[in-house]
Amino acid sequence: MKVLKLKVYQQFANYRKPLSYSFIDTFPLPTYSNIRGWIHRILQAQEYIPLSISIQGTYESIVYDLQTLYKFDRPRPEKKDLIFLPEYKKTIVKSPFYVANLQNVSLILHISMEYSLLEKIKTMLLDTFSSIGRHEDMARIDEIDFVEVGKKNIGIDFYKIKYPIYLKKETADKYNLIGINFKIPYKYRIEENLRYFEKIDVVYIEEGTLFGEVILDSEGDLVELVGDFPGES
Predict the structure, then answer these.
(1) How far apart are CA 13 and CA 29, in angstroms?
(2) In b/e form, how buried is each residue of 107-119, taking b as 16+ CB within 10 angstroms?
(3) Range with the lowest mean pLDDT among 36-40, 51-55, 192-196?
(4) Buried residues in 121-137 as b, exposed as e (16+ CB within 10 A)
């Protein structure tokens, strides 16, 4: 099977965990929803396109950024120093919060979808400035090309995981791998201008060994495609 393989660099990134407010936490790798949204923006898609994704990569460190949040609140007449907006009957309040930023992120992405769309993505990415996660988190494409992906029986040998990766829970269990369990955004639907996310259980594996039959690309990198492109799950 032929898929599109990308090596992507981001100087800073935050792949926000849901329900993190006073402290904006981040997943260690972008979510499937992050990458799906990115691909759909590149293609300027007007409707959902089935695809499957494998996500792995590293980051150098985490830095914490102190920011100020401005928001509407109930009227507080006792607080003379606050700005009151009579037309909205709201007071503007501010509060500090921290943002976790991954620094020097290097990603390896495998994308499986209709071949003609993969060719279009490859062409458009070379002429497009884009971001993954937040709008300000620019993504630099270091390498992009097609690779073959298939099952390989390594027999009595072991395959050592090269980079931290999201694996399906059944895959992690199959190889007795221990990592961090996440329920991460998978994709979303829009109803009445609101996003409703579907989530998927994965295990974030930083290191370990696999045996028997494994799925590798033609460059020897592990592949764990997750999605809804025909033939994938």
Answers:
(1) 9
(2) bbbbbbbeeebbe
(3) 192-196
(4) bbeebeeeebebbbeeb
Bridge partner list, 106: 9, 58
Tokens of 170: 């059944």
**Kind plus residue range of the DSSP H or E element containing 208:** none
Could you say which DSSP state residue 107 is in? E
- Residue with the two structure tokens 């497009």: 128
**Whole-number Å distance between alpha carbons of 184 and 202:** 7
HSE, side-chain direction, 13 A CA sphere, residue 91: 12
Q: Is 43 helix (H, G, I), strand (E, B) or coil?
A: helix
Contact 20, 138 (CB under 8 A): no
Structure tokens at 72: 């509407």
Contact 213, 152 (CB under 8 A): yes
CA distance 84 to 74: 9
Task: Measure the CA–CA gap between 18 and 59, rounded to whole angstroms.
Answer: 21
The tokens describing 99, both together, are 């943002």
Q: CA 220 from chain center: how many Å?
A: 22
Vertex 29 angle, CA 26 and 33, to 5° = 90
Q: Which of 38, 22, 200, 2 is nearest to 99 (CA)?
A: 22
Residue type, 230: P
Q: What integer is the mean pLDDT of 67-95?
A: 72
143-173: pLDDT as tens digits: 999 999 999 998 778 999 999 999 999 999 9
